[in-house]
Amino acid sequence: MKKKISIYAMVLVVICFFMLYRLDAYIMKPGSAYDVSEFVNVENSHTNDKGSLSLMTVAMQQATPFSYLWAKTQKYQKLMDITQVRNPLEDEEEYNVRQLKLMTDSQFNAKYVAFQRAGLQTKILFNGVFVLNVLEGGASENFLKAGDEIIEVDGQKIRNQQMLVDLLKPKQLGEKVTIQFIRNKKEQEVTITLKEIPRSEETRAGLGITYAESKSIETNPNVSMKTEDIGGPSAGLMFTLEILDQLLEEDLTKGYAVAGTGEMLVDGTVGRIGGIDYKVIAADRDGMEIFFAPDDEITPEMKAKYPELESNYATAVKVAKEIKTKMKIVPVKTVDDAIEYLKQLQPK
């Protein structure tokens, strides 16, 4: 009897291991289409559209032994080493913070480009320097953390990213600096002793952080965006089109279910994104009729380094043929390509 119990217990432990133990690998698979109007609201907007604009997601999960083995048998599930997902210098929390920062920047660019295309003015504000990650062994370890926003150094207000560089450049190893920063909407202060920057090619004193500019944009009418559960920059194009659609009296969708993906750059260029094959599959499954795909340029240098690399649009077309979708795949290099395509559509 005891032997049977021991066997059952061992089997249970093995099952739990296979189902719950997290490996240093991720699984990417098709996500879902989400109507962008659920996340974006322009004050006093025109929202009588018969169609819809949808952003696309991919589903990412950390693999367990069971899900890892299962993914190997599935055509449209991709196994990725943890280094392909996360920067080697960041932990999981810092990765999540970076993804949210990319989404925030995506929203900024979407508002800026949409208002520019609508012929409306915007006001850009510099908020500070956003900490992306704190290097292990660096001066800021245990003082600053990812997501902090540095607003002052030694009593001087930071007015742009270069100013932080200029203030720290003449400092020596062992010198102290007082940092004013915002964490969880609360202003805090800390004094940090400068150290050599870990893994730097040159010996110099620094905070030991990676960072990016933190900017915000004021618009009239006001645009509110609720995207707490979405990370990364790939919804930028669809955010831009949705804001523009709500600003204009005309219905850009013409009654069609329109989806797409692509980073929105500040000059209106649509940037390359990852997982477009899975987004095409999800868009088809969720009943989308038109799909905008970044038509990014693959340079000879990129092709030489990565022979199998192809544009997002080429991948999207290939997958669309494989799954025999009736969905129209439309290449876009800029937001203007997408706008022009929608404007020439005959109403459904």
From TrEMBL:
The keyword Kinase does not apply. Residues 228-345 form the Lon proteolytic domain. It catalyses: Hydrolysis of proteins in presence of ATP. GO terms for molecular function: peptidase activity. One of its GO terms (biological process) is proteolysis. SUPFAM superfamilies: PDZ domain-like (SSF50156), Ribosomal protein S5 domain 2-like (SSF54211). The active site is at residues 234, 279. Residues 99-185 form the PDZ domain. The keyword DNA-binding does not apply. SMART domains: PDZ. It comes from the Bacteria. Its EC number is 3.4.21.53. Belongs to the peptidase S16 family. This is endopeptidase La.
